[in-house]
Amino acid sequence: MANPYAADDAHRVVQRNGYQGSSSHKTISRPDYAGTGYVNPMHLVKNREVGHYRNSAEGRPLQSVQVVIPSPHRGVSTINPKTATPVSHSASASVVPPLDYQLLLLSLAEEYFAAAGGAGSALALLQRQPDILEYQRLVATGLSCLEASLKYWRLPPLLEASIQLRYATVLHEETDNLDDAEEALSKGIVLSGRLQDFDLKYNMQHLLARVLYRGNARAGLKYLDKLIEDVEAYQHVPWAHQEVISALNQLHSIFATSQKHSDAAVGAIASSLEALIHLQESDSAESIEQAQRAIALARRSQLDRAVGDAPKLVAMIHFVDLCCTLRRFEPSQATAKMQAMQATLDALRQGSLLGDDNSFSIPIGHTAGMEPRSRNGVISSSSDGTQLLNLDWIPTQDIYSLGFLLSGICVAHKNTSDGQKSESMLHEAIRLQKKLVEEVVAAPQSIFVAASRHSCRLLLKAFMHLHLAFVLCTRTAWLLADEQLQQVKALMLVLGLHALDDLNLSVQYLEGVIQQAAGNLESSLTIFQSPSLAIAQINRLTASQLRMELASLSALNTLLIIRSRPHSFNTISSMLDYLEPICANHPNKAILTAYNFVIATVSAPESIVRTKQCLQYALQAAKFCGNKQLLCMTLSFLSWKFFRGVLGDQAEKSARTSHQSAKMAMDRLWMSVSAGILGDALEIQGRGKEAEAVKQEGRIIAAGLPPAVQRVETAIGRA
């Protein structure tokens, strides 16, 4: 046996396990462990007095482990050899039994990891630097114990391979030391291959693919491609599913494999992921159609018992299916799918079927001669011997808050006509998410896993506030909308680098909308024409779908502001050229309505035919998507454009329709506008008293608008 007191070598072990690379959280970095007050594992075998840990979640610092054990070469190490009374050899042997130092180091390593993991959730939330350093010290010492056991003892091959897997797993989860993780996995893969332990081998190869992907995405995917070929050639079906599911470009292969082996649940997951990829890739009609085809396959699999027995998988299918419909903005279908989703979540909640954590399992095909054992938790067996593929998704409570968010978005277009249900749902989503953000998880977990989850929850909460702000804008509650905007900005400061570009763009656009509503037109123009939102600076080949849409909406708002200004013809013409290929055939009916409405307002006075066509398209699209605000704007402009100064019942009918539509939309600006149009129509017919009453109603409403808006000469603006 090698010398267990090789302290210098062990010291270098700890130094090499330093954290290199960038931080995975704004305030949680992965510093070099060599300077964090590590405990050398070779010094641990000098004593045997075990201390205890205290959880920093209770506000107390973490306590390190101290061990007092006998020296392996002589009696008890705590006895001073200069003053000790001589003891016979036989007596000494009867008092001190031999110790298994390998087992001791492995046990110590797990105790250190458990002590660190027990405080991971609290540390991610509280961000106390002394406790974070203590956490790093505990993990570093645990890693050193594992490496010392590998370096200084000759271990049975199976045990050595298992330790290599554990060592590499901690390196992957806790550090940026990918080279050592890759080296440990490579050694372990060779050992498990010699032992023909395929379950252990595939566990390691699965982890190695993730390690490689962190360093180089292309290398990780290339390794997966090779691994997929191997597992399919050897007919190791469970691992074929797991490896393919890690490579997004192999989703069709997953579905084909699952159909071949009657693994309906795996096919449902593959189809759901494929639908998500299409939705993220583009908002084009083709991408949405492909996403709907994929989710239809997942829906078909729902009839299988294996899918029904995985409640979180059912919830995932509902979420993705609803997102597909929302992309097209088809209100009737979206409402039906929202109700189905809510019924499913209610049933799952009442039956407590979703569990308490973020994992779920699905049954998969059995491979003869291959019995999976619990190692990294990827493949396992149930009590009846069924092989299970274990997957991580979002925690159970997050599923409910996400359900409220999607429901609120689904009914946002009719918030003003159904008792403001959208606002209620979004407020409930925010309430649930606030509890989750402040939650300290009792189960042990890595500080970096906890920090990542905390960031995701903060990000989701920011999007909830953002959607609520937009919903408030639809009923012109501008002050309340601005309050929600400030909440989003505060969360973005906390998120720092974790705030997505999409969130930044959305906040910027919303700020421009609120400035425009307040009558601060120059400020809103500055925002709408900024480099990130200017339509002329968008590269359609590389820009994200959200950026293209927000840039298009910014351009439409800009046109409404500058259309009556002198010398704006060239600017308007140029912006229309940019907008046409993006908006003319947009699958989202709301954007199509806004585009046709703006085209009608900026068309030359002599272009009567084009104006009528655009207004007709806008009306049809607004009715289809149920957007009350766009409908009242279009009706008001139509009445003003074609029935202004006209005597007859048609003019009055048009004006009354637009006024009633504005009331349903709860849009104070357009209620005032339509009241003026209706008053003019009544006045022409000689009904002066009635006309004055309507106009007075409009003036009262207008008095509540921002002062800058009240100075507008006409409701719609100068033609």
Automatic annotation (TrEMBL):
GO cellular component: nucleus
One Pfam family cited in the UniProt record for this chain: Cohesin_load
Intracellular or extracellular location(s): Nucleus
Main location: nucleus
Domain of life: Eukaryota
GO biological process, alphabetically ordered: cell division; chromosome segregation; mitotic sister chromatid cohesion
Positions of region (Disordered): 1-33
InterPro entries: MAU2 (IPR019440)
Keyword terms, alphabetized: Cell cycle, Cell division, Chromosome partition, Mitosis, Nucleus
Skewed-composition ranges (Polar residues): 17-26
Record family assignment: Belongs to the SCC4/mau-2 family.
Protein name: Cohesin loading factor
Source organism (scientific name): Heterodermia speciosa
